[in-house]
Design brief:
The longest helix has 18 residues, at 195-212. The chain contains 8 helices and 11 strands. Strands 2-3-1-4-11-5 form a 6-stranded mixed sheet. Strands 8-7-9-6-10 form a 5-stranded mixed sheet. The protein has 2 domains: 6-95 and 181-212, 3-Layer(aba) Sandwich (D-Maltodextrin-Binding Protein, domain 2), CATH 3.40.190.10; 98-178, Periplasmic binding protein-like II (D-Maltodextrin-Binding Protein, domain 2). It has helices spanning 14-25, 59-64, 75-80, 121-130, 146-149, 164-168, 188-193, 195-212, and strands spanning 6-11, 41-43, 49-54, 70-74, 86-91, 97-104, 114-118, 135-139, 155-160, 171-180, 182-187. Bound molecules: phosphoribosyl ATP and magnesium ion. Phosphoribosyl ATP (PRT) binds at residues 13-15, 56-57, 74, 76-77, 95, 97, 158-165, 180.
Length: 213
Amino acid sequence: MSQQPLTIALSKGRILDDTLPLFEEAGIVPAEDIKKSRKLIFDTNHDHIKLVVIRATDVPTYVQYGAADIGVAGKDVLMEADSTGLYEPLDLNIATCRLMTAALKGAPEPTGRIKVASKFVGVTKRYFAEQGKQADIIKLYGGMELAPIMGLADLIVDIVDTGNTLRANGLEERDLIAPISSRLVVGKAAMKMKHRQIQPIIDKLAQAVDRRR
Ligand code: PRT
Ligand code: MG
């Protein structure tokens, strides 16, 4: 029986660096060097599997609308996205980091109405609401570390890995919001319609993740 075509959406940037070796271990290899190409769509060693390489924040959208069947995205992006049309069957345990609050080193814990700068507006709003704290969320698109220095915000919510970026800017970690890693996501419609194709891919990736533990 012939295989239905399958599209996998990969997050470009730092997640891609960890994704490609894992996919190779699971037997899915792009037909050309993705990092040396400006193309966005790639054939693979499987006739029926294509890869698309897109902005991390766009991956849930492609998978949710069924334009891609499977995706790889950071948990931070998934927490911020509306992921009602998605299953999240596998933690790939790659691109690991932490979603944290941070403040100027030594600054007192802010009280009253707190100003928080982040690009993760939805997650930040929910987090402070759960804490029972009043917070004004200020949306930024990058360089969050600058906000407390410039007096724009008391706290930031950002991704931390080694902590070097915070330290270099005179900031320190405060509270852990969530440990982050990249996840395999599958569209709910795709899971139903293409289960026979998709399940073996989930299984192979799960084995590759296990072998690394
Ligand atoms: O950069 P751009 O705006 O184009 O896109 P992007 O930021 O969405 O993509 P990219 O390639 O930066 O990848 C982001 C994804 O990688 C996130 O969604 C996380 O799931 C994951 N990830 C893992 C990280 C980090 N580690 C990480 N360290 N994303 C960002 N960082 C940044 C962080 O924002 C901070 O500026 O690295 C800095 C902190 O690192 P340390 O080591 O100094 O603490
Ligand atoms: Mg980035």
